[in-house]
Structures are given as C-alpha cells and as structure tokens.
Amino acid sequence: MEDTNTDFRIGISSIYPITIIQKQKHSFWHGALIVRLQLSSTRHLNILLTHLNPFHATARKKECEQIVATIQSSPHSNEEWLVMGDLNSLSRLDESSYNASNIVTTLTQTDKLSQKFLTEDHTAVDYAPLDTLMIDGELRDLSSSRNQLGHLDYSVPTLLDVDDMHATHMRLDYVFGNESIANKVSRCGVLRNEETGILSDHYPVILDFE
C-alpha cells in the first residue's frame, strides 16, 4: 500500500513477485502506482493502478494523457499492460444506457455533479478522459458495459449509498488492457452481491485471464 497526495492510498497484493517500477504523484490529484508482476520465467504483467481526479473531467483527461505517455515511453511497452482503478469517469461505451436514463438531467441537479461528469457547458456527458485511453492509448475497456440481463454493469452506488456523487447507477471502476492481454481475458465485470455491497462505496471489478 503506497501513499498518494491525499488520504486515499493505492495498493496491490499478488501471489506473484511484484516489482515497483514507479510511483507518480506530480501529474495526478491522488497518484499512480506502476508495478511489474513476474507471472513466469518468460512472462511479465505491467499494471498501472490509479485513482483519478474526483472533481473535473478536464483534469482527468490530463491524467489519462499522462497514463498513455507513461505506457508508451516504458521500455516494457510491448509487454502486457493493465490500467485499473477508480477512474471517476463515464465511458462512451455506456452512452446508450446513460441516454436511456437521462443521466444529464440527474447530473445537472448540483454544480459538483455537473463539474465532475459533464462538459463545460453542462449539456452533455464528458467522455474525453476514457476516450483518451481508448483512442490515443489504444487500450481496450475490458470491463463489461452490460450485465447478463443487458443492464448497465454499474459499480456505484453500493448498498452503503454514502457518496452524494454517486447520484445514479454509473460505471466508474474499470480495467483497461492493451492488445497483448486483451485477447487472453475470459471475464471482466463488476462483482455485485450482498457482501460486496457493504464492503465499500464502490463495487469491485473482477478479471480472469489466461
């Protein structure tokens, strides 16, 4: 578990050997942790864990630009990479669900919600942060945007319902991966049940890969 710029810490545990590659604070509201797992004698998995800015999409876009730059400049850029965490952002892949729920109306109820999730004119969802990861970074959103019933695979709010910023069902927690690992993923989605509903104000995301 590593310190960040705030009271929120970032950590990882693994049955595989972990090497901390880098800790980043200067370009992030909270911070980012880059680690390298040795899965076998010939295979390594690079993971960037982060918790993006909780206030403004424009700030999160800059953080996502830093994430892309970090991966692309890494000497291990051709290896398997995952980017994961509370990204505090809405995904364009969920746009149909958000349009159906008229989420813009919900998010314009308070200035804080509007500033966090909407464009500067407060008329539309600002998808720019995650677009940066998917377009500029060529990373794939490995999480399921819909559950088996075809509904939004939301990660907030949980049963605790303690955060006013979780004003409606939203997917804020993600796992992104590059092409080297994306095709090896067999399952990735939000784990919602009675137990996980009271463990945190966010539901966890589970990922299985070969």
Walk me through what this model shows:
The protein has 210 residues and is an alpha+beta fold. The chain has a single domain, classed as 4-Layer Sandwich (Deoxyribonuclease I, Chain A), CATH 3.60.10.10. Helices cover 22% and strands 23% of the residues. The chain has six helices and eight strands, in the order βββαβααααββαββ. It has helices at 57-72, 95-100, 103-107, 111-117, 128-136, 179-182, and strands spanning 18-24, 31-38, 44-51, 80-86, 140-141, 173-177, 185-190, 205-209. It has a six-stranded mixed beta sheet. Strand 3, helix 1 and strand 4 form a beta-alpha-beta unit. The longest helix has 16 residues, at 57-72. The chain is globular. It starts with 17 loop residues before the first strand and ends with a strand. The model has no long low-confidence stretch (mean pLDDT 95). This is Endonuclease/exonuclease/phosphatase domain-containing protein.
Topology readout:
Layout: E1 18-24, E2 31-38, E3 44-51, H1 57-72, E4 80-86, H2 95-100, H3 103-107, H4 111-117, H5 128-136, E5 140-141, E6 173-177, H6 179-182, E7 185-190, E8 205-209
Parallel strand pairs: 3-4
Antiparallel strand pairs: 1-2, 2-3, 4-6, 5-6, 7-8
Helix pairs in contact: 1-5
Helix/strand class: alpha+beta
Gross CATH architecture: 4-Layer Sandwich
Uncertain regions spanning at least 5 consecutive residues: none
Give the tally of β-strands: 8
The CATH first-level class comes to Alpha Beta
Overall radius of gyration? 17 Å
Question: Beta-strand level of the residues, as a percent range?
Answer: 15-25%
Helix content: 10-25%
Which of globular, elongated, flat, extended, rod-shaped describes the shape?
globular
Order of helices and strands: EEEHEHHHHEEHEE
Mean pLDDT: 95
Question: Number of folding domains?
Answer: 1
What name goes with the CATH superfamily? Endonuclease/exonuclease/phosphatase
Compute the number of helices.
6
Please list the strands of the largest sheet in the order they lie side by side. Answer: 1-2-3-4-6-5
Protein name: Endonuclease/exonuclease/phosphatase domain-containing protein
InterPro entries: Endo/exonu/phosph_ase_sf
Organism: Rhizophlyctis rosea
